[in-house]
From TrEMBL:
<feature type="domain" description="Carboxymuconolactone decarboxylase-like">
    <location>
        <begin position="40"/>
        <end position="120"/>
    </location>
</feature>
<dbReference type="Pfam" id="PF02627">
    <property type="entry name" value="CMD"/>
</dbReference>
<dbReference type="GO" id="GO:0051920">
    <property type="term" value="F:peroxiredoxin activity"/>
</dbReference>
<protein>
    <submittedName>
        <fullName>Carboxymuconolactone decarboxylase family protein</fullName>
    </submittedName>
</protein>
<dbReference type="InterPro" id="IPR003779">
    <property type="entry name" value="CMD-like"/>
</dbReference>
<dbReference type="InterPro" id="IPR029032">
    <property type="entry name" value="AhpD-like"/>
</dbReference>
Length: 196
């Protein structure tokens, strides 16, 4: 059982309208948003932040942003967000080989060096204590401009919020996210955990 029960998608009409964004991203409105709408200012601010963070203004693709989110969620252990991130990566065109081998991004040939630098940044920035150091900085600047690095850290920070929210809430995971989690992450032990 979640800490707080999600409300109906019809509870707040402004949130409902904004949440249409997630129909493209995930194919459903996440239970996390349905819980946030108990305070509609939070749900609306969150959705607007999510749309701003996930907008593409440089060469950081939508698929890479979702893989950055997966690495961040994997580092913090949020199974809910892991499944959502891998599902969104799939829906935004991540290569099948990358989806199947996300756990091995550091060595698998499906990932190039620029992607590895971004994903290593996600891992380092998601750890406590923070592990972003001069080596990470140099690798990032080799492949990405400062605006793109801001986009990446926006994703990592957004998922820091989501990882805390969903793991603390024990947010019930939706069937579509479960399917993606089992398909791409199950072979490495992914399971719903407390997100039933």
């Amino acid at each position: 059982m979640p800490l707080v029960t999600p409300l109906s998608a019809d509870h707040d009409q402004e949130t409902k309208k904004l949440a249409e964004f997630f129909n493209e991203t995930l194919g459903f409105c996440p239970n996390s948003v349905l819980t946030m709408q108990r305070r509609p200012a939070i749900s609306k601010a969150f959705i607007n932040l999510n749309m701003a963070v996930m907008a593409n203004e440089g060469k950081v693709t939508s698929a890479l942003k979702r893989m950055i989110a997966w690495v961040s969620s994997n580092a913090t252990g949020c199974r809910y967000c892991q499944a959502h991130a891998i599902r969104a990566a799939e829906r935004y065109g991540a290569e099948q080989e990358q989806l199947d081998n996300i756990w091995e991004y550091r060595t698998h040939p499906a990932f190039n060096e620029a992607e590895r630098a971004a994903l290593d940044f996600s891992l380092a920035a998601s750890q406590v204590p923070n592990a972003v150091d001069e080596t990470i900085k140099k690798r990032l600047h080799k492949y990405w401009d400062e605006g793109e690095i801001v986009e990446m850290l926006g994703v990592i920070s957004l998922f820091g919020y989501l990882n805390r929210w969903n793991d603390s809430m024990g947010t019930s995971i939706e069937s579509g996210a479960v399917e993606s989690g089992e398909q791409y992450l199950g072979k490495h032990g992914w399971e719903k955990g407390k997100h039933i």
